[in-house]
Amino acid sequence: MNIVVLCGGLSPERNVSLSSGTKIASALMDLGHKVVLVDMFFGLEDYAGGLEGIFDAPPALGGTRIDEAAPDLEVVRASRKLRSDSMFGDRVLEVCGMADIVFMALHGRCGEDGKVQAAFDLLGIKYTGSGHLGSAIAMDKDLTKRVVAPLGVLTPEWKLYDARTLDPEAVCAEAALPCVVKPVDSGSSIGVDIAHTRVELLRALDSARAEGGALYMGRPENDQSYMLCRILPEQLRRLVLPLGGMIKAETRALAEKWGLPAAKKPDSMELCFVPDGDYAAWLDRRGDAPAPGELIFEGRAVARHGGIHRYTLGQRRGLGYAAGRRVYVSEIRPETGEVVLAEGAGLFVSEFTAGDMRWLVPAPEEPFDCAVRIRHSRALAPARALPLPGGRLRFTAAAPLRAPTPGQAAAVYVGSQVLGGGFLLHDTKDTN
Predict the structure, then answer these.
(1) Candidates 3.40.50.20, 3.40.50.280, 3.30.1700.10, 3.30.1330.40; CATH matching 2-139
(2) What does pTM read for this prediction?
(3) If we measure between CA atoms, which residue out of 295, 378, 369, 381 comes closest to residue 338?
(4) For residue 298, which of 5, 237, 258, 398 sits 20 to 30 Å off, Cα-Cα?
């Protein structure tokens, strides 16, 4: 028989699929079959011969890329020559249509969720395994349980949670331990944990939610997602963040239990290389400080200052000028070295723009509702986001925010999921 062994794809289980596909192809060839091993995502882009003779070609010419190392899906995606969003690579459907049967060695969402099977059913391509409907149902663990439980199939009690709105503390309060935590639509035991304690449950929830390269907020007491908003998907997939579901006291208790010196180390609130928190003096000592300039109040220069590095938007104390009433830094102009002072109302803006956006999800092309955080200590602010040319994102906040500062990071959220982040630009508009 002429057999295509289909493997690879873009699932997090890509490496499992490549490994099992290679072994299946080898076994089938030992039985005397003519086999073409095909990576579904790349297809035959490295095969220069004609399709009419592909089953007679040496297996190495089948156009596959076999790598049993852990997959970096973003690197895989970027390396494909075929610039298409199709899940099928170069001539995959054509060569599958020529086979007597396609042996499905795909794992995970790409291949076990019914999409490939549905395409083959429409094209009349024969394949091994379940049909598209059975595959789609079985891929969704919640749907599978809801289908089989009324038919008398014994299945443990379960509850489905939305990763975007999940409250880990609420789960801990209602879960019976020990319990199994797993993503609803993954395979190969990826993201699966058995939790015996509350700490293990919190860690398991983080692992299950992060499966596939998504980033979510941690516990409110010590959420650090704002600081991670600009990492890239390929970086996130290599990270393990076991402390996201733990508060600092729990972390210190574990460190003390394991004899780690950090258990007694004081909390650090500043940059390690500026222990006294005096950033201006640190720049002065390095010789990198900006030159002195003018303080501007009510449209005129009222005093000289020692450099814009000594000021931040919203600052009220240490301005170097007594206005006779309460004023704040409302604008810093690096180009001219001017620092603008204003009364408090001028600090509040409802529209601001972030640039140099990095995304953990496909970059949005249409306006969308979100929440934005512009400082680590600030609460999430509901906003409408408008994608602009040049990788910029324009925010219209539901309520004016105090002193969005150019250069600050702006983290974008939908529910508890971090979509990405950028840096605030100097085009902030005053709404007062």
Answers:
(1) 3.40.50.20
(2) 0.55
(3) 295
(4) 398
